[in-house]
Amino acid sequence: MNAFLRNAWYVAAWSHELQAGKLLARKILGEPLVLWRTAGGAIAALEDRCVHRHAPLSRGRLEGDALRCGYHGLKFAPDGRCIEVPGMDSPPPAACVRRFAVVEHRRWVMVWMGDDVARADTGLLPDNFSCESPEWAYVPGYVHYETPVELIADNLLDFSHLSYVHAATFGGGADDTLARVQPRVERLTRGVRVRRDIPRVPPPAYYRPLWAYDDPVDRWLHYEFLLPGTLLMHSGAQPAGMAAEDAERQGTGVRFHSCQTLTPETATSTHYFFMEAHRADRGDANVTEALFQGLLTAFEEDRAMIAAQWRNLQRAPDRRMLPLHMDAALTHYRQLYAAALRAETPT
Amino acid sequence: MNAFLRNAWYVAAWSHELQAGKLLARKILGEPLVLWRTAGGAIAALEDRCVHRHAPLSRGRLEGDALRCGYHGLKFAPDGRCIEVPGMDSPPPAACVRRFAVVEHRRWVMVWMGDDVARADTGLLPDNFSCESPEWAYVPGYVHYETPVELIADNLLDFSHLSYVHAATFGGGADDTLARVQPRVERLTRGVRVRRDIPRVPPPAYYRPLWAYDDPVDRWLHYEFLLPGTLLMHSGAQPAGMAAEDAERQGTGVRFHSCQTLTPETATSTHYFFMEAHRADRGDANVTEALFQGLLTAFEEDRAMIAAQWRNLQRAPDRRMLPLHMDAALTHYRQLYAAALRAETPT
Amino acid sequence: MNAFLRNAWYVAAWSHELQAGKLLARKILGEPLVLWRTAGGAIAALEDRCVHRHAPLSRGRLEGDALRCGYHGLKFAPDGRCIEVPGMDSPPPAACVRRFAVVEHRRWVMVWMGDDVARADTGLLPDNFSCESPEWAYVPGYVHYETPVELIADNLLDFSHLSYVHAATFGGGADDTLARVQPRVERLTRGVRVRRDIPRVPPPAYYRPLWAYDDPVDRWLHYEFLLPGTLLMHSGAQPAGMAAEDAERQGTGVRFHSCQTLTPETATSTHYFFMEAHRADRGDANVTEALFQGLLTAFEEDRAMIAAQWRNLQRAPDRRMLPLHMDAALTHYRQLYAAALRAETPT
Is B69 part of the contact surface with chain C (CB cutoff 8 Å)? Predict the structure, then answer.
């Protein structure tokens, strides 16, 4: 297992994945978890492994708020305590399943993966405000990657790839100005801020459900990428040369807010939860859905490239990469991640 | 390769799988075997590997009782001696394929996997009498498991799982009395005897082809589980409260005899040969088939659970299980197996 | 990675696989290559790995003769030099991709896999003359093997298997005279020559599109097998007992020339490029196609046997094979290969 930050919140699911009476199995940082929603609406998250003979609890059944193992019938409370062993008067005290701290934070079900539940710090939750706001509209997305999380983080930290991987979606077709513009990169305590302003370029095909014009636009992509792997981004465009305040006043151009997050499943596979919201007062449900389909198309472009890159890396893991100016943000983030990892590793 | 008992009989096939003129390839304890029936009706079992360039002999063809390799034409007698090399006057004496002792024992084709054929002891054959008896009717079954044999043996040694894994088939629906009843466990020289009597419970759905009533029954499951992995079981039920002799005299209730055996294919996969016979004078061929379908359904429930358990065990092989009262028989059997293994391992 | 000869030419593709404007990805000796045809008709072959972040260049696009990486847009000349990094004034000198010497030799695109391009010696190209000759007609063939190259070379170095693996295609049905005849084996500096003359045998079913008669033929198979893995073969048959000059003068019988070559893809998988040509003045395009289909059928017979053999070898890699008289050519070739490998390995 590669080393991952453990004292951190990871998205385990979208809120709607946890439905009354249903068990959800999900592997995070190599560990199997089972999650469910109790009658009171809270979420329980236990290790998905019965203490008895290690059967997955997710193959069991809910009895009220408690979970009964489907193999030999041990019954567990939402906090992991065994409350019944069939045929025994009382369960042995050791019959306890590990529980995880879990919060539901603006439609993201977030799990603290550190051993010490008491250290779970809600001050570290990301500001994914647009996931739960009447001002923004989106469809929640999920993609499963059979690649390590680092490669996907690298991808998100260098948007020059939009011109090439996404020429037909997020990019500008043959116009690769976006890749040639230098972004401003700013180091943050727990991440990196990247601002890319691209003057006078063709609007990307991805905008089309919201923006049917071909005239050049001034475009921007402003985001933060934060430990342990969350991207929060404002982006948009307006007619080339127009002042931002004028565009805002006239309600012209397009504006998005995007929340994306990477949760390592194993050392070599990753959960990718994402959304990109448009202003709710611009475009109806058809627009929301069409933008989502465009997003999925583009994310498949990423996935194909990253999977191909991963195959090359596995073939020759010791070959060095060649750092270039465009790698500034990803290099900083990798250093930050390594430092955070050292800080939580006992010496 | 895990260590398996080698000086033991393993079921390689059901008798009907060995048809005149056909070769059967089967891997046992990690070794490839080829089996066929000679004109005299005897069974030959050789290593499925030509001595020349290691092609599988099962891709060759029978010429009378002899087997010709399909790659370069070496020809072998049923005892493994090479009797012809194309283009040579006589085969080199070293051109000999390993043969295995094999007996056909009440429709089970059994192979002795020990190196020393002379040690093959027919006194160790299991008493699978109902496999070949006019008093019993069944359809022979086979399931292939992609899990180690131990986990399937564990399953068979603790029937408390019938209430949970098999609630809809062998168990009693929501009634889990079967799991709560304490079985009597008796240590045998080469196995363990388990007797579980369950008074006044709903008849399991599995009985339905033979027993259409919903009234409570007294139920029993009495079996032996013997080295290297065979279960022999009497089971049945009769109207709750009725004396056994009365039920027998009136011909009421249901009675089964079951022969099941586990043959390791590799360290992580297993052949499972099984049958459960009902009294031949109760129920016609439709009943026999319907019971068999019920058995298959229930055995798929086991397979899904054990496969899921195996995935969890692979993820964390060093995590300890928590022994509970219900593990008495399996714990004894595991100890017995380990001791038998030590006894046959040269020190 | 097994050790393979590197200072040697390997077929990377048939000529027709390299079409204007298209990129071809092919892995050879474990290394990913990307090949394309330039406007001038020459062929470029680079390592299929961008120096920047190791994305496969074959996912990029051609811009004239240059190749632009599809991930972050680095642009490479056919000789591997980076000629543009988006957003930089000039690329760093280290941004260079490895190029391979490549020649197009009678419809075989051949790549020199040695590190030193200057050592690429066209004197070592094989004499696959019939691949590009108006006198011979064929359909080019390709099969992918999931087995190491050695096992396929072994197969080609001992044609006794034609009587058994190919009884229904290249062999003679129940007549296995071909296997019983002793071939003449001659050692060459860079290979081995094998001549097998088989008098008075039934014509193989494979001949049928060209030769509809059942009368016995005198048959011959004369070939060289040359480092690093190329078979060049004259073969044919004529009415039994007829003098060769008479058959030639009367234009009776059948004659083939075959060029086949094995290119290791990885240590355990192989590219197999092959053709078997008949005289162009005998038989039309339908005959050519029918012979090709027969060849494919027979090659599938080989592949099934070799794959089965490979599974047996993986199970017990340390078990010894038993050398027999029929292994003379393959034993010599294996020794030759080992010596060539030692010669190019620095001590």
Answer: yes
* Lookup: tokens for A327: 């790698």
On whether any CB of chain A is under 8 Å from the CB of B181, the answer is yes
Q: List the A108-112 sheet strands across, edge first.
A: A9-14, A108-112, A101-105
Residue with tokens 């509970």: B324
Task: Give the H/E segment covering residue A287.
Answer: helix A285-315
Cβ–Cβ contact C90 with A under 8 A: no
Query: Tokens standing for A344?
Result: 């939580």
Contact assessment for residue C114 and residue C6, using Cβ atoms and an 8 Å cutoff: yes
At position B193, the amino acid (one-letter code) is R
Share the mean pLDDT of chain A.
96
Cα–Cα distance between A318 and A309 in angstroms, integer? 14
Map out the domains of chain A with their CATH numbers: 9-124 (2.102.10.10), 129-344 (3.90.380.10)
Q: Are strands C101-105 and C108-112 parallel, antiparallel or unpaired?
A: antiparallel
- Give tens-digit pLDDT for C143-190: 999 999 999 999 999 999 999 999 999 999 999 999 999 999 999 999
Mean pLDDT of C258-272: 98
Q: Which residues contact A273 (CB under 8 A, 6 or more apart)?
A: A11, A13, A14, A108, A140, A141, A142, A260, A261, A263
- d(CA B166, CA A75) in angstroms, rounded, equals 17
Q: Residue A248 — pLDDT band, cuts 50, 70, 90?
A: confident
Contacts of B164 in chain A (CB under 8 A): 60, 68-73
Radius of gyration of chain C (CA): 22
Q: Which helix (DSSP H) or strand (DSSP E) does residue C239 occupy?
A: strand C230-239
Name, in order, each residue with C-beta under 8 angstroms of B228's C-beta and a sequence gap of 6 or more.
B4, B5, B8, B9, B10, B262, B337
Exposed (0-12), middle (13-18) or buried (19+): which is B14, by Cβ within 10 Å? Answer: middle
Statement: residue B107 has pLDDT above 50 = yes
pLDDT at C2: 52
Partner residue opposite B321 with nearest CB, options A52, A59, A85? A52
pLDDT of residue B2: 52
Whether residue C73 and residue A181 make contact (CB cut-off 8 A), yes or no, is no
Task: Say how far apart CA C33 and CA B127 lie, in whole Å.
Answer: 63
Lookup: tokens for C314:
């993986």
A95–chain B nearest CA distance, Å: 7
Token digits of residue C337: 């290969």
Q: Report the gap between the CA of A88 and the closest CA in chain B (Å).
A: 8
Grade residue B251 by pLDDT with cuts at 50, 70 and 90: confident
B315 touches chain A (CB under 8 A): yes
- Average pLDDT on C81-96 reads 95
**B319: closest CA of chain A, how far (Å):** 9
Other Cβ atoms within 10 Å of A186 Cβ, number: 13
- Partners of residue C61 on adjacent β-strands: C68
Q: Between B164, B316, B322, which is nearest A51 by CB? A: B322
**Tokens at residue B220, please?**
């029993």
- Which residues, 6+ apart, have CB-to-CB distance to C158 below 8 Å? B72, C326, C327, C329, C330
Classify each residue of B187-213 as buried b or exposed e, where b means 16 or more C-beta atoms within 10 Å of its C-beta: eeeebbbbebebeebbbbbbbebbbee
Spatial separation of the C-alpha atoms in residues C276 and B310, rounded to whole Å? 50
Number of C-alpha atoms within 13 angstroms, CB side, residue A109? 23
Cβ-Cβ contacts under 8 Å, A88 against chain B: 324-325
Q: What count of Cα atoms within 13 Å lies in the side-chain half-sphere of residue C106? A: 14
Query: CB B215: neighbour CB atoms within 10 A?
Result: 9
Mean confidence (pLDDT) of chain C: 96
